Amino acid sequence: MTIRKSAQEPRLTAFMSQDKSMLDAYKEGKDLYAVIASLSFGVPYEKCLEFNPITHEKQVDGKERRSQAKTILLGLEYGRGANSIGEQLGKSREDAQEIINKFFKAFPKVEKWINDTHKSVKQCGYVEDWYGRRRRLPDILLPEYEFTSLTDNNSIKNFNPFIDCEDRSDELLELKIQDYKKQLAKAKWGKQRDEIISKALKDDIVIKNNSSFIAQAERQSVNAIIQGGAATLTKLAMINIDNDEELNRLGFKLLITIHDEVLGECPEENSEQVAKRLTQVMVDTAKPYMNVPMSCDAYNVSHWYEDEYQAELLKELDSYMNKNNLTKEEAIAKLISEHTESTEQFIRKLVE
User: Fold this and answer.
1) How far apart, in whole angstroms, are the C-alpha atoms of residue 210 and residue 124?
2) pLDDT tens, 95-137?
3) What distance in Å separates the CA atoms of residue 117 and residue 17, rounded to the nearest whole number?
4) 37 within 8 A of 25, measured Cβ to Cβ
5) DSSP character string of 170-233
6) CB–CB of 5/260 below 8 Å?
7) Model confidence over 296-338: pLDDT tens digits?
8) Which secondary structure element, helix H or strand E, spans residue 322, and what is its range?
């Protein structure tokens, strides 16, 4: 038995930002990714769905637009910039930035929430999910550059025969550091910064560039709230599942969570009732806290990802029979020999 949370991250984005367009999309039962595609690309909502809502025919262009919208939203949640998102979309940085700008114009409160999160984490060094769980990001508080002298006032290199020269030596070192700080502030490219850092080393001054650590912490801040919030919601749901009298009566036992899925087992004859009740408990967990409707999908299987596993086995079986000219029994024997993760009985059950 598997319960898979449906698009939990974008739902949490809608909740955290309280963006009206996002909230309305969920309240109206619309596909958020299709809404994003429609507003970002200027295409009717119906043409951004994988299937035509009237004829139910598959829409290749609609599926592609929806997929791109998903890439945009998840990319922003993971702190990716125009370069990274553009690479994923197969577009130039300029085109990707234009799409991002359209997204933020369509969902202005999402942009505000992201900016506010970046501002807040730079002040306190941590973020909190919707429940108050903290993720500390200490690197965000690092100075952009740290300066260390390879010599000190007691070294032979700094020796000066004149009396009372120690203060003067410190003053000269500080003047050099201030000069390098000004040079770094004016540098526009990474190559320029590297040249300045190399030049400082000749003056026995080590400059540590913390820019990448700070940028990584900033990127993690939004994602920590969304992913952390999803994990918090899952934990609360697991407590409710474990305490649910009906599920206990039906013999359901929690086994493990994997990313956005909760796995458990129950007597086969109770599986349909358990699936229905599990879905309800998962959805109800969020209701006291959030004004965004949650959604879950329940799957009754004897093995985790059994349908997907069966599809792959059948594909391999077909390949062995058609390309290698093996009989079906020979192809099955080859499958069994190569898939040692499963028993012969289980493989035969899936492919015969």
Assistant:
1) 18
2) 889 889 989 998 999 999 999 999 999 999 999 999 999 999 9
3) 10
4) no
5) HHHHHHHHHHHHHHHHH--SHHHHHHHHHHHHHTTEEEEE-HHHHHHHHHHHHHHHHHHHHHHH
6) yes
7) 888 888 888 888 889 999 999 999 998 888 899 999 999 999 9
8) helix 306-323
- Residue 140 carries which side chain, given as an amino acid letter? I
Q: What is the DSSP letter of 10?
A: H
Q: Helix (H, G, I), strand (E, B), or coil: what is residue 138?
A: helix
Indicate the SS3 state at residue 153: coil
Phi, psi torsion values for 262, nearest 5 degrees: -115, 125
Q: Compute CA distances 156 → 152, 160, 190, 345, whole Å.
A: 9, 9, 35, 79
- Chain segment 1-49, per-residue pLDDT in tens: 666 656 788 999 999 999 999 999 998 989 999 999 998 888 999 999 9
Q: Measured on CA atoms in the order 82, 8, 10, 59, is the torsion positive or negative? A: positive
The phi, psi pair for 136, rounded to 5°, reads -80, 135
Reduce the DSSP state of residue 22 to 3 states and report it.
helix
Sequence-distant (6+) residues with CB within 8 A of 150 are 204, 205, 206
The alpha carbon of residue 26 and the mean position of all alpha carbons in its chain are separated, in whole angstroms, by 21
Helix (H, G, I), strand (E, B) or coil at 18: coil
Q: Which residue has the tokens 């367009």?
A: 21
Q: Which helix (H) or strand (E) holds 128?
A: strand 126-128
